[in-house]
């Protein structure tokens, strides 16, 4: 085949430049760890990469929300345990009063007032500015015994929820799928209402000696409340377990998604280094060929 | 045998010297032009001069080169294709980078993922004022990202359009240059001068021209070149046919070239005739394809994405109501009172107080309504509210008593697309716009508030809006998470995907196309290089070859000089003998 001098030089130079470009691409891959800076260089997996990136963000967000939720649920569980302790203490004292051991109404009334305040403040516990028993989005204290509408003494046998200032719906965490995950218990529940009503009745007791029928009613209410709060605790424990499972499975998913994303977008550093060395050798050979071509000329031999 | 004189020998030798000198000059020109682009190696054609049937010497009959015209045509074709593919690949890659990169991801995906996170937080925050403001901001950011991306597509179209105008200028300059060359070649042919160098210039111009637009060409019997576009329109006949094009300027999504005329973007014309359709291939063909097909397809994809998601969000939002319920609900979709109305289902129109308790409620059977005026009248007739159609054609429903708000509820179906009534009227919707380029948060979100809760009841005395209820925001979140039926575009089939899924699918589609365009470009560049190299290798100058020729010519010159010297000696001897 005949060749023209200029074309041959240009061709060899172009080849060398191409090898140089491959070399530079390999160097960039080694430096950035990325297969390609542009999405078109991901072997058709650009959509998967974008989806995975979004999944990872959503999952990280969900885990952080779920952790907040779990902190709230765990706090609620512990707080309910404290409230049940107060109820048990109250029940022992009321039983003693019914049996005639305590005869002074004033002592029981003072104790009941203390228990009431303790329980109310426990129901007003907050975690990071979120009212634990206030329902969805509540930040303010959910129990206000001074609410003008709250008057349990007027009809001791009937439930009175007017002390409740919180939201009417449970807290909710948006997880995959149509429905969110509801969590937390509210201070307008049966247990809370009965506890507060029973303690209010005792604290508002004016008869002396103590009214045994009223004390028995309060005792029964507290008994019911303890059962209801135990059910709430069971629910909270279930929620906590569910949130833990969610956090664990999402963390596991993130590990999988990260490795899947890496396999799409990143190069293996060892392989990239080997490629760089390989291209370097080819580039050297290419330059050497260019040098032989330019250094040889017929006129060097004919004279 | 005929007689030969010493003078004849001198004459023959002189011819030899002249021919050798010419050949030397051609060879040295070849060497000096070894690097000139488009220069082909010339050779000297010599012939024996014959007088009276006897060879009497040698003379130069021409300087020329015979190029492989078939190969040349292939080179021209490959030039067109390579320039075409390279241009399209550059545009595809450019717009892909506007959609996202490997390192920093996609702004569209980020805005949408953020929107979902913020919605999730607002659901959990009971739709507090701050969380609702955050959702509104996130919606606006997402819409702005779509507008920006759409603007990038249009900016790319504007660049293509400007480049079309520049390319048309370049084509005109080349055609006029080729026209001038035609005249020179005709003159040289007429006077018997060599035309090989002029043909080299012609070939260089032709190759540049085929890079700009796909052409066919032939040479007439008189040596003049004729050029046609691949579509058959004459570009160079006895004179250059000047193309004219006025660029559109700043492109918008609705600016389009219509081959049948009447489009907002003008065609490329010759003598007032639109020949755009006949101009394919090369840079120009690629620019037209980018401006009129590739980039609009991406705009279409963005529009389908934007409207699919916006409709899903609006469908969810319009079932809910801001909390507290606004005193006035204003629609964002213009209707005329006389427009026919077709709907079904029972619409409940309620007025609620500040606590969210229903104070009055009226049910309207939509199947009994025939026109929009009837609808407004029925709404106006509902207890506790008044309704009108304002100057913009928007339905406005106002609560009669201060401190109460209007709530719409009920399962309704309106019109051909089966939207709920509030959705159809644009009441309590969150997004407005007709495509990605004008998508925005609906104005009513600012004036009425973000729809947060779906009314729990419309029975008088019941609580419609429960404190802390975020069912409306949950519906918005679910609308983004659930599959949405997206319309087909010219490059993507209709599909049911989540909002993120469709965003990823759109980017994937553009990335795949960019990658395919890149592959096509490198393949056609390779083909061009191979063909161009075989042509220039066959016809270009080989310096070593010319050096060898130079040596041979030098020897030949010495030999012929020796003949003259010998003849001179013979003549001298003869004269000496005569003396």
Automatic annotation (TrEMBL), chain A:
InterPro entries assigned: Flagellin (IPR001492)
GO MF terms held by the record: structural molecule activity
Assigned keywords, A-Z: Cell projection, Cilium, Flagellum
Keyword Translocase: no
SUPFAM superfamilies linked: Phase 1 flagellin (SSF64518)
Source superkingdom: Bacteria
One CC-aspect GO term: bacterial-type flagellum
Name by which UniProt lists this protein: Flagellar hook-associated protein 3 FlgL
Automatic annotation (TrEMBL), chain B:
GO annotation, biological process: bacterial-type flagellum assembly
Alphabetical UniProt keywords: Bacterial flagellum, Cell projection, Cilium, Flagellum, Secreted
Keyword set includes Secreted: yes
Gene Ontology molecular function, alphabetical: structural molecule activity
GO cellular component, one term: bacterial-type flagellum basal body
Cross-referenced Pfam families: Flg_bb_rod, Flg_bbr_C, FlgK_D1
Keyword Secreted: yes
Boundaries of every Flagellar hook-associated protein FlgK helical domain copy: 103-318
Main location per the UniProt record: other
UniProt subcellular location: Bacterial flagellum basal body; Secreted
Domain Flagellar basal-body/hook protein C-terminal, residue spans: 537-575
Domain Flagellar basal body rod protein N-terminal: from-to ranges: 10-40
Cited NCBIfam families: flgK_ends (TIGR02492)
PANTHER family: FLAGELLAR HOOK-ASSOCIATED PROTEIN 1 (PTHR30033)
Stated family: Belongs to the flagella basal body rod proteins family.
Protein name: Flagellar hook-associated protein 1
Species this protein is from: Roseospira visakhapatnamensis
Organismal lineage: Bacteria, Pseudomonadati, Pseudomonadota, Alphaproteobacteria, Rhodospirillales
């Amino acid at each position: 085949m005949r060749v023209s001098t200029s074309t041959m030089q240009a061709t060899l130079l172009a080849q060398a430049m191409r090898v140089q470009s491959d070399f530079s691409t390999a160097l960039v891959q080694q430096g950035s760890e990325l297969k390609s800076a542009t999405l078109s260089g991901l072997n058709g997996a650009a959509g998967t990469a974008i989806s995975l990136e979004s999944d990872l963000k959503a999952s990280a967000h969900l885990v952080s929300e779920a952790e907040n939720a779990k902190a709230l649920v765990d706090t609620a569980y512990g707080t309910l345990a404290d409230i049940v302790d107060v109820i048990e203490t109250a029940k022992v004292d009321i039983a003693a009063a019914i049996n005639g051991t305590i005869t002074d109404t004033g002592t029981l009334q003072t104790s009941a007032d203390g228990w009431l305040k303790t329980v109310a403040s426990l129901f007003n516990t907050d975690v990071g500015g979120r009212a634990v028993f206030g329902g969805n989005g509540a930040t303010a204290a959910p129990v206000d015994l001074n609410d003008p509408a709250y008057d349990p003494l007027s009809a001791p046998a009937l439930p009175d929820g007017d002390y409740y200032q919180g939201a009417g719906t449970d807290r909710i965490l948006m997880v995959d799928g149509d429905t969110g995950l509801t969590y937390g218990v509210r201070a307008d529940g049966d247990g809370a209402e009965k506890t507060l009503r029973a303690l209010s009745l005792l604290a508002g007791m004016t008869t002396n000696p103590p009214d045994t029928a009223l004390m028995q009613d309060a005792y029964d209410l507290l008994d019911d409340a303890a059962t209801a709060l135990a059910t709430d605790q069971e629910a909270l424990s279930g929620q906590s377990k569910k949130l833990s499972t969610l956090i664990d499975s999402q963390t596991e998913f993130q590990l999988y998604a990260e490795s899947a994303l890496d396999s799409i977008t990143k190069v293996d550093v060892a392989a990239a280094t080997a490629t760089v060395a390989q291209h370097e050798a080819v580039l050297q050979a290419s330059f050497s060929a260019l040098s032989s071509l330019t250094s040889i000329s017929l006129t060097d031999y004919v004279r | 045998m005929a007689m030969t004189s010493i003078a004849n020998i001198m004459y023959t030798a002189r011819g030899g010297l002249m021919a050798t000198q010419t050949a030397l000059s051609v060879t040295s020109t070849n060497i000096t032009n070894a690097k000139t682009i488009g220069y082909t190696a010339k050779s000297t054609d010599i012939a024996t001069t014959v007088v009276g049937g006897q060879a009497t010497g040698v003379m130069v009959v021409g300087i020329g080169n015979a190029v492989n015209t078939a190969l040349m045509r292939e080179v021209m074709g490959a030039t067109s294709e390579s320039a075409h593919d390279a241009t399209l690949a550059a545009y595809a890659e450019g717009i892909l980078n506007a959609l996202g990169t490997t390192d920093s991801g996609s702004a569209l995906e980020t805005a949408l993922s953020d929107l979902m996170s913020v919605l999730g937080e607002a659901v959990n925050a009971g739709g507090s004022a701050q969380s609702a403001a955050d959702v509104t901001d996130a919606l606006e950011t997402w819409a702005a990202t779509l507008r920006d991306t759409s603007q990038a597509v249009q900016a790319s179209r504007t660049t293509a359009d400007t480049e079309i105008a520049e390319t048309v200028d370049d084509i005109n300059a080349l055609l006029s240059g080729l026209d001038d060359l035609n005249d020179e070649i005709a003159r040289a042919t007429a006077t018997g001068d060599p035309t090989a160098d002029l043909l080299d210039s012609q070939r260089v111009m032709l190759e540049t021209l085929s890079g700009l637009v796909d052409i066919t060409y032939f040479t007439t019997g008189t040596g003049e070149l004729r050029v046609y576009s691949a579509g058959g329109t004459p570009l160079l006949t006895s004179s250059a046919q000047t193309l004219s094009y006025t660029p559109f300027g700043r492109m918008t999504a609705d600016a389009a070239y219509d081959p049948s005329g009447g489009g907002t973007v003008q065609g490329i014309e010759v003598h007032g005739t639109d020949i755009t359709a006949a101009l394919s291939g090369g840079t120009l063909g690629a620019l037209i394809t980018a401006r009129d097909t590739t980039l609009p397809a991406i705009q279409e994809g963005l529009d389908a994405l934007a409207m699919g998601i916006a409709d899903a969000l609006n469908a969810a939002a319009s079932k809910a109501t801001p909390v507290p319920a606004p005193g006035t609900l204003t629609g964002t979709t213009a209707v005329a009172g006389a427009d026919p109305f077709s709907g079904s289902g029972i619409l409940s129109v309620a007025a609620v107080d500040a606590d969210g308790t229903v104070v009055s409620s009226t049910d309207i059977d939509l199947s009994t309504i025939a026109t929009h005026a009837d609808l407004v009248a029925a709404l106006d007739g509902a207890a506790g509210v008044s309704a009108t159609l304002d100057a913009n054609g928007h339905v406005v429903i106002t609560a009669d008593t201060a401190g109460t708000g209007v709530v719409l509820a009920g399962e309704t179906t309106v019109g051909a697309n089966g939207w709920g009534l509030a959705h159809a009227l644009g009441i309590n919707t969150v997004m407005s716009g007709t495509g990605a380029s004008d998508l925005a948060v609906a104005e009513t979100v600012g004036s009425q508030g973000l729809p947060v809760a779906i009314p729990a009841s419309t029975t008088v005395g019941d609580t419609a809006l429960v404190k802390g209820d975020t069912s409306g925001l949950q519906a918005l979140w679910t609308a983004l998470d659930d599959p949405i039926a997206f319309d087909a575009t010219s490059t993507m089939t209709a599909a049911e995907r989540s909002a993120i899924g469709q965003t990823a699918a759109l980017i994937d589609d553009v990335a795949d196309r960019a990658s395919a365009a890149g592959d096509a470009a490198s393949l056609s560049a390779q083909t061009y290089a191979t063909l161009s190299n075989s042509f220039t290798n066959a016809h270009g100058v080989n310096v070593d070859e010319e050096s060898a020729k130079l040596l041979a010519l030098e020897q030949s010159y010495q030999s012929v000089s020796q003949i003259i010297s010998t003849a001179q000696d013979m003549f001298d001897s003869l004269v000496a003998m005569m003396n």
